[in-house]
Structures are given as structure tokens and as C-alpha cells.
Amino acid sequence: MGFCLQAFIALVLVQASCGQHDYPPPHHPHYVPPPPPPHHIPPPHPEPYPQPCSPPHVEPHPHPYPHPHPVPHVEPHPHPYPPHPEPYPQHCPAPPHPEPHVEPHPHPLPHPEPYPQPCPPPHPPSHPPPYPHPHPPPHPPIHPPPYVPQHPHPIPPPPPPPVYHGIFPQHFSFGVSNGAYDHEGGYLQDGAGESIYDRWIHNNPHLILDGSNGDVSADGYNHLEEDVEILNNLTVRHYVFSLSWARIIPTGCGDVNKAAIKHYQRQIELLRENQIEPIVVLYNGDLPQALQDQGGFLSDQFPRWFTEYANVAFECFGGSVQYWITFDDPFGHCHEGYGEGTLPPGVGDNPGVNEYICGHHLLKAHADVYHLYDDSYRYIQKGKVSMAIYSPWFEPATDCQTDIEAAETRLQFHIGWFAHPIYVGDYPKVMIQRISQLSELQGLCESRLPVFTRKEIEWIKDTHDFFALTYFIGYHVSAVSDESCLSPSLNGDAGSEIVTIKGDDTWGIRKVVVWVKQQYLNPSIFILNNGFVLADRSLEDYSRIDYIKKILIHIYDAMTKDDVRIYAYTYYSYIDGFVRTFGYTIKFGFYDVEFDCPAKTRTARISADYYRHVCKYGCIDDPCPPRHHHEYFGEHVVY
């Protein structure tokens, strides 16, 4: 401030000395008295506080603020040093006349300019002080971050990298399947005969959940071209379907129905035109009722009847068919048809006996048909023949050794019953021993299990060109004591009971194929049937897609990690139809059918799109993984 005032006075003196200002006379209304002479200028007002414009230097007080921690009293030294002229070191010389002591304010202000100054003050703050209280905060105030408006459509974070499950080899075949009674309809149409399914269901509608029958079903008999177009749209490489024995030979043996022959020839021709491999099942439950009246599977004439029927099929269709299945699910036909009586023909009066007789004759019939093809048709037609065995998985209910043994025994009674005579020779040893022991315990003179002769064992052994299996479900089993099996039954003979049904155990299929590999010298495996059931007609069947993905992952793992030789997978079914005792209450198909509509309209579900992708590219994942993720099996063909 002193410098500014001195400059102002000097400027006035210079102007006065140069005569640049003419002051008006005293009587003028705007008269201003001239400034006094320089020696009369009063000294500037003392400035006790430092000013922004070069304030005079003021030496700080030696004790400007009280010490926060007082120094404790110390007795003076008996021989003190002479007093120092300057008790505290000073940065600048002390003023000649020290200022009077002023007690500091208990709450000093952060800026010591309490009065307006002649020089412009600094820019005012852009916002009011955060605290109105004169005491400063203990810490600098924390201001929230500036507001940033959110984008109306924020960009989501990048998705995690996909997990790929591999690609099946190019020679692997994907297909679908169906059964004659499930799908065809056409009851007695074009001279067809009555089957055991027709008779049993018509006489016992109360045994079907919805009281329905398969007289019309999806009417596949009259929608041949449309259904083949659906198969072509799915891009399947093979189609498994069964012939109706009662349609081809209405009485079971004798005259052949030419209309039925033309129908199946046309079906096979359409499949070939669309590059779809037909896989033909000779028997899937529709035995002519005329033969059942003569004993059916319990008659020792059954192998002859079946061989005559197979000969007609080989002769009429063999030129266009490379894969033949003699029986699909022999366990179900014998155990449920002739043991429990819960399926056609419903013979359940002698469980634990009739089912073994049925299986005995069925194995003989299979061997006779295999040798017929081997001797008369293989050289020309160059096809393959096998039997499709229903192969569920049985898991021990506990880690107890008895339950572990019970699960293994159950596998032998279920799969080994028909696979062991064909792949090894004769029935499984555990099956022979248990039935013999229990028969004796039950007071019988001989085993309830029929005995093959040595010649029959050799005749049946090796009657296969591949291992065809069906998988739908897995079970938990628990061991039961032999004393509780006083009544003959297959469940008692197997020494176990089912305690839990695991309907979603997709991992069971991997265990089954590994078990088959270990038991039967790693045969080539053809998965003939596998499916997922829903109870409603929804077209958005995401759960079916999830099931198929899991199944294919386990199959892929069995091939790549367990070295199981699997070369085909078949989904049952591509279209809804009649399902045994469930009627139309459950749905297996990729296509929904309007059963109440005479046209039987077919509508694709979303699972059809997924399976089309699988069939076309061999990828479990949709979309397929990038090329560098591909895992190939090599150039060899597993079959």
C-alpha cells in the first residue's frame, strides 16, 4: 500500500510542477482545494497485517502461537551459560523497536486480510464455502464426482468367451426314427391285418392314459410325401422305421399284401431320392393277431414264422436297404408283453417263466434271420443285420457293496440277457446261476430259464454286424434278499428293486456305451433310439434342445475320451404320435401334430431348427466353433 500511495503523490507533484492543472478560483462551485505541500502529507496509516502490495517487513513474534504441548519446567543449571543475545535464530534482523505483544486469536482466520484493500482482491470462489461455521473442517471437504448423464442405451459388457464342445466326424450319421403303430395309422387300410396292438388296445381302452388308440395316429400311411419332405428339411442322413408285419402278411404267414409292399417300396424310394439312408426294423410290437392266437412268441414255431416274414422283406426291399434290425427292444416285448402283461399281448399270468420262453424263441428267430441273410442275400445286397437292445443305465442306490453288485447284475439281466448270447455265447453266468438257485428255492424241479444246446449257442453267437442300442432313462437300484423272492419274477431274479427313476440323467448314456465296450470287445455302436418327452404341445421346447446337447456331449466324450466306437445317433421321434400306454398325452417329436384335425397338420418346433443344424454341420454348438477350434478324429472310419 505504501508504494502505491507514494507513486500517487509523486504523480501529483509532477503535474503541479509542470502547470498542467489550472484549479478554479475558490468561489467556483466546483472548487477543490489543492493538495498540501509535500512536507504536509500525513504518513500512511499503520498496517498491522501484511498486504498483498509489498507490505513492510515485520519480524514475526518469537512466540506467535501457544505451543500445543507446554514444555515442562526445568530447574536452571547451577552454572548457566552466558545469555545469548538472540535466544532464537532469526532469518531477518530484529526491528529496532519491537511491536507490542498481541495475543493470538483462538481461531485464526485462514486469510489475514480482514479489511478491504486498495488492490483488487483475488477472484471470488466459484461456490460458497462448504462449511458456514468459522472453524475450518479437520480435513478438506470431499466433493462428489461431477454428474455424467447415462446413455439411454448403455453398451453391455462383452460376453464371456464361448465354450465349444467339438464337432463330430464327417462319417458320423445323425437321423430320426419312428414306429409303424406309433405313426402310420391306417388301421385295416388296403388289406392290412389286425395286430396284437389293435386287439389289446381296443379291448382295454382303460389301460391307455387318455383312452385313445393308434387307428389313425399321425396318419403317416397317407402323408408319405409330406413326411419325407420333413425328413429332408431336417437334413438327416438316416431314417429308422419299422415295417408292420400285420400289414405285409395279414395272417402272419401265407399270402402277402401287395398294397403294403408297394407302400413300403415307395417310402424307401422317396428316402433314397432325398439321400436318406433307410434303416428298416422288421419287428417293433405289431405281431399279427392271427399268430398270437397260436401262441405268439411262446410258440416254438415262432422262429419259423419270423424267418418267412423276414425273407419277404429281404426279397422285396433288400435291394435298397443296407441296414436291417430284426427286433427293436426285445426286453420290452418279452418282459412287459409276456411277464408283467402291461403291453400287448398282455400275457401276465406266468411271470418269471413266460418272459424267458419269449426271449429264448426271440433269440433263435434272430439267429435264423441273420443266417438267412448271410446265406442268401448278403453277397448281392451287401447289407448289415443286427438287433436293437434297450439299454438303460442302472446306478447303485448306495456305495454298499451289495448295491454295487445288484446294479451290475441288473445290467446283465437287462442288456446281457440278449447281448451276451449274440456277442459272447449263451446267457450271462450270473443270470443262469441266480435263476437256477431261486427256482430250487421256490420248489421247482428245474430252472425257469430255458437251456440252449451247444449247437444253438454256436448258431446264435456272432449274429451281428454292429451293436444297436436304445437309451431313454436311468435307474437307481437297491439289493433285495433272496428270501424275499419266493414268487417267480424277473425283478426277484435280478436281486434288486428300482428305488429311484432318474429321468434327466443324460450322463447315463456314456456309462452304458462304455459298459458295452468293456463287455463285448468294443463293437461298433449304432444308437438307434433316444428321445426326450414333454407333456404339452408347446413349440418352444428349449428343454428338449438342452437335453439333446447334453446327450451329444456325453456321446462325444465317450468317443474322444473313452475310445468308444459310435458312428450314428438317432432321435425318437421326428413327429408326435401314439406312445404305448400314454396315448397322445406326451410328446417326443420335433414336429407337433394336430391330432383333432382331419388333415393332421404338422408344425415345427424350435428344436427342429437346432437338430437341423446338428445334422447339417455335426456341431453340438449353434453356431459352430471357429475353424481353429475344430477337433477331427482323423481319416479312419470307425465302422
TrEMBL record:
Gene Ontology biological process terms in this record = carbohydrate metabolic process
SUPFAM superfamilies in the record: (Trans)glycosidases
| Region of interest (Disordered), residue spans | 25-159
- UniProt lists compositionally biased (Pro residues) regions at 31-71, 79-97, 107-159
- Matching Pfam families, A to Z? Glyco_hydro_1
According to the record, the signal peptide region is: 1-19
Record keywords, A-Z: Glycosidase, Hydrolase, Signal
Q: Which GO terms describe its molecular function?
A: beta-glucosidase activity
State the similarity comment.
Belongs to the glycosyl hydrolase 1 family.
Q: What is this protein called?
A: Uncharacterized protein
The species this protein belongs to is: Psylliodes chrysocephalus
